[in-house]
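Saturday, quiet lab. Running sequence design on the structure tokens for the scaffold JK sent over.
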């Protein structure tokens, strides 16, 4: 078994993208789209890549052909928690890196490292950047699906509210910078200005 075959990766694509003016996953970046760039980058470290997308019946469900397993949300725009639950139920390995689709400079080496340091008794490894848990740039065990399902049944739909129910190892910035000195992997696209910054970074 190679290193790429040890863990899985999950990309969540189902959210609205009102602040960028179009769906983030389909933004053009360097001759491709953001979602294609993400999948390609993740394949450097993972053979099993799962994309959880909006239902095909809504506009945000339109995706290019991807070298990944694409599964669909049952309900459009239900939030990241149900989407992550579907992803965890679809992976081939015990541990998966999970991220949102708006990370143009994602570092697959950092993603794989987060998976590699997830040891018992922890359920998840979650980076802390700017004093904030990066719950959609983190490693989770497949068994977390049970906690997510029970929380959703109780009406808890916030991913940040569910994560404290898990045994989590936090990783602080100093440790992260040993692999990603400028923490570029955590830069995400929320606005048109962020998109312009991403284009500038990728062209330099």
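Result came back. Writing it out in full:
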């Amino acid at each position: 078994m190679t290193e790429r075959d040890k863990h899985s990766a999950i990309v969540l694509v189902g959210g609205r993208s009102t602040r960028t003016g179009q769906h983030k996953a389909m933004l053009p970046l360097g001759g491709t789209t953001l979602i294609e760039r993400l999948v390609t980058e993740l394949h450097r470290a993972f053979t099993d890549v799962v994309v959880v997308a909006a239902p095909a019946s809504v506009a945000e469900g339109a995706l290019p052909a991807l070298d990944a397993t694409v599964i669909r949300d049952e309900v459009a725009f239900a939030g990241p928690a149900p989407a992550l639950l579907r992803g965890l139920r679809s992976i081939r390995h015990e541990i998966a890196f999970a991220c949102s689709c708006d990370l143009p400079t994602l570092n697959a080496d950092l993603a794989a490292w987060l998976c590699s340091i997830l040891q018992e008794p922890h359920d998840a490894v979650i980076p802390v950047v700017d004093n904030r848990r990066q719950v959609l740039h983190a490693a989770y065990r497949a068994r977390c699906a049970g906690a997510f399902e029970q929380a959703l049944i109780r009406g808890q739909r916030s991913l940040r509210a569910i994560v404290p129910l898990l045994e989590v190892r936090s990783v602080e910035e100093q440790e992260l910078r040993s692999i990603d000195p400028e923490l570029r992997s955590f830069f995400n696209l929320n606005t048109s200005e962020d998109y312009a910054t991403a284009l500038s970074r990728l062209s330099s």
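Notes for JK: The helical segments are 34-42, 80-88, 108-116, 144-153, 159-162, 173-176, 192-203. The chain has a mean pLDDT of 90. Ask whether to fix the surface positions before the next round.
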